[in-house]
Task: inverse folding
């Protein structure tokens, strides 16, 4: 019907896309070169590398028992040992590994699903408002209450943590996507695309969605922090990761019982948790600052 | 007027929450009766439990029965202890209310105080220091501040009791000592969020023309800060206080575990572990309800502060 057909993708498109991707990557690398970004990159880099390489660095695993129980820190065990003589530092590194694995699964799922729910209004108004109601409902649940709901249904463990983290992070992504949609929809370039006969979903994916990438990445980092908090909170009350498998929350839980005798049982894992969160927060700051400049 | 417009969405939220709380045990794999009674319960026990839970009736009837029970205060009997749920909750609720109230006072006081102080600090060193303190508090969740406070004020310099509790109404002097650390631990992270918002909002307001006008008019610095800047910056802070209150309740669960307090939080955790559904359902519903009501109250507060919202200029 339309006189002007949207130009079919020519061979130039993949090239342009690769170029665009390189530009985007370069922009994020610049964000890492600020003092904040650099600190974040170093902290997170060290933590991620050691926890990913944990099985190579500490082949004994997290359950290897030594001789002294509740010993004070030494060079080989910087956080001392726990109630059955296990090296708390090694356990904390494996615990960080657990936390990172949870975040790595939950946050991207939440980002995609949340964005999808937020943009559902494009497809149909009714579906969109149902999605909004759903997100409002999730927002009404405080983090730990949500975790309790999930644990009540499927029992404690890694899976229920991933599910609670994902559900908990959904509304933020949904609202973000919707806000961007609202802000961009009235722009001239969108009207232009519409007049050229580009379909609504395609405008969405090709023209509007790329605008959300920056804020989306910043939001993912923020969501990672709250996901880590949720893990630790649930594990501390005993509804998260189940011992003997370590997570930062599990270690804080058992360490809290021996605070009088071995304060580093709590301080060590707390330090790693703090560094992890600090790294993520600085990264989020660096990315948002980059947006403001651009 | 304003309240009336908000009512439908609030009603929806509460009804939806009650549906979720009602549905949870029924979503769990397996027969809820078996989950309650344990795997080796006799068929007669199972039948009795089904009868008690009303599992033989259609779902809608079950839901309406349950909601009716909650509204009339008839919460049924706990499966693990055999005591009425209302009684279980009644004996625990005081401890949590104490904690939440003191923590809320700390949260609002410290949050606004720290925020105003950071925004009005003139010396750059003080600004940086306060900003840093705020950022540090932001990256520490309640359990971390709790554990650190225990190590600092309970073990390194033992001046406050670190576990257990004495009801405030029984003995205010001792009771407050047991409350201080947990309440502070619970309040600090939320206070940091509020403080950051107050600071940001005050710095924005500071740049407005009417502030310049007030200064040009010769209004004293203190009055400008209090009546011109602070009042116009409180809106976002109030909204956050409302939103943070729910997190305060969630944090209370962890704080009660760390400080060995016997409140609703520890009841909730114990009930989840023993799958005592009737107790958990009511607690979930209560937590969300309190959080939502607090949000409404603070929204009303914002409306009182800002006539533009009260009179409905924006929806």
Result:
């Amino acid at each position: 019907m339309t006189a002007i057909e949207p130009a079919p993708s020519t061979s130039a498109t993949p090239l342009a896309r690769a170029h665009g991707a390189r530009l985007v990557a370069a922009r994020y690398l610049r964000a890492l070169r600020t003092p904040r970004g650099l600190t974040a990159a170093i902290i997170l880099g060290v933590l991620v590398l050691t926890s990913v390489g944990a099985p190579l660095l500490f082949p004994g695993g997290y359950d290897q028992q030594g001789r002294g129980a509740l010993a004070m820190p030494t060079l080989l065990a910087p956080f001392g040992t726990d109630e059955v003589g296990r090296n708390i530092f090694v356990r904390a590194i494996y615990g960080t590994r657990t936390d990172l694995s949870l975040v790595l699964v939950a946050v991207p799922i939440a980002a995609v699903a949340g964005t999808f729910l937020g943009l559902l209004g494009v497809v149909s108004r009714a579906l969109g408002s149902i999605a909004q109601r759903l997100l409002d409902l999730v927002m009404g649940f405080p983090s730990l209450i949500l975790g309790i709901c999930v644990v009540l249904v499927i029992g404690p463990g890694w899976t229920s943590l991933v599910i609670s983290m994902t559900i908990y992070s959904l509304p933020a992504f949904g609202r973000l996507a919707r806000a961007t949609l609202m802000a961009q929809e009235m722009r001239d370039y969108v009207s232009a695309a519409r007049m050229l006969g580009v379909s609504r979903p395609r405008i969405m994916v090709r023209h509007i969605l790329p605008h959300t990438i920056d804020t989306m990445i910043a939001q993912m980092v923020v969501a990672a922090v709250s996901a880590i908090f949720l893990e630790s909170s649930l594990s501390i009350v005993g509804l998260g990761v189940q011992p003997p498998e370590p997570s930062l929350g599990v270690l804080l839980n058992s360490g809290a019982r021996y605070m009088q005798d071995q304060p580093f049982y709590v301080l060590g894992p707390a330090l790693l948790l703090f560094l992890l969160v600090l790294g993520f927060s600085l990264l989020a700051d660096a990315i948002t600052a980059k947006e403001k400049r651009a | 007027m304003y309240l009336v417009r908000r009512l439908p969405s609030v009603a929806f939220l509460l009804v939806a929450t009650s549906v979720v709380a009602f549905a949870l045990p029924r979503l769990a794999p397996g027969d809820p009766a078996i989950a309650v009674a344990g795997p080796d319960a006799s068929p007669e026990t199972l039948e009795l439990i089904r009868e008690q839970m009303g599992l033989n009736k259609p779902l809608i009837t079950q839901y309406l029965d349950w909601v009716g029970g909650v509204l009339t205060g008839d919460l049924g009997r706990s499966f693990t202890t055999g005591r009425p749920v209302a009684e279980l909750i009644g004996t625990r609720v005081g401890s949590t209310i104490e904690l939440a109230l003191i923590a809320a006072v700390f949260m609002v006081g410290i949050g606004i105080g720290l925020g105003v102080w950071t925004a009005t600090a003139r010396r750059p060193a003080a600004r940086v220091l306060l900003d840093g303190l705020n950022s540090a508090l932001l990256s520490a969740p309640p359990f971390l501040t709790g554990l650190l406070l225990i190590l600092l004020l309970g073990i390194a310099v033992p001046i406050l009791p670190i576990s257990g509790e004495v009801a405030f109404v029984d003995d205010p002097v001792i009771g407050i000592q047991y409350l201080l650390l947990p309440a502070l631990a619970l309040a600090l992270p939320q206070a940091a969020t509020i403080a950051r918002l107050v600071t940001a909002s005050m710095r924005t307001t500071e740049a407005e023309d009417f502030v310049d006008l007030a200064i040009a008019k010769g209004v004293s610095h203190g009055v400008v800060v209090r009546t011109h800047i602070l009042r116009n910056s409180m809106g976002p802070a109030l909204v956050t206080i409302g939103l943070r209150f729910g997190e305060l309740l969630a944090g209370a669960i962890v704080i009660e575990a760390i400080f060995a307090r016997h409140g609703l939080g520890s009841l909730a955790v114990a009930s989840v572990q023993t799958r005592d559904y009737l107790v958990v359902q009511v607690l979930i519903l209560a937590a969300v309800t309190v959080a939502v009501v607090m949000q409404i109250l603070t929204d009303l507060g914002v409306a009182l502060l800002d006539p533009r919202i009260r009179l409905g200029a924006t929806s």
About this structure: Chain A touches chain B at residues 133, 136-137, 140-145, 148-149, 151-154, 225, 229, 232-233, 236-239, 252, 256, 259-260, 263, 266-267, 270, 273-274, 277-278, 281 (CB under 8 Å). Chain A has one domain: 81-293. Residues 109 and 166 of chain A are 7 Å apart (CA to CA).
